[in-house]
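The data are quoted verbatim for reference:
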Amino acid sequence: MAENNNGAIEAVRGIVSGAIGFTKQVVGLILSRGDLQEEGRAQVEKASHQLDAARAEAEAETARAKAKAQETRQKAAAGTSK
C-alpha cells in the first residue's frame, strides 16, 4: 500500500501522535513510570517531525500551484501573441 504524504494528513497524524505522547508522559508521571514518560517524550518528538513534514509538504504544494499558474499564464500569453 502506498503511503499518502499529503500535508493535511501528516498534520493530523502529527497532532494525534503528539496528544498521545503527551498523555503517556502525564500517565507516566502520575504512575512514577520513567519508561512511559520517555516513550511519551519520544512520541511527542516524532509528532514534531510529522508536523515539520506537513509544513514542508504544504509549502511544496503551494510552490507547485504557483509554478502551474505561471506556466498557464505563459502559455496563454504565447497563444495570444501569435
Summary: The chain has a mean pLDDT of 88. DSSP finds two helices and no strands in the chain. The helical segments are 7-30, 34-80.
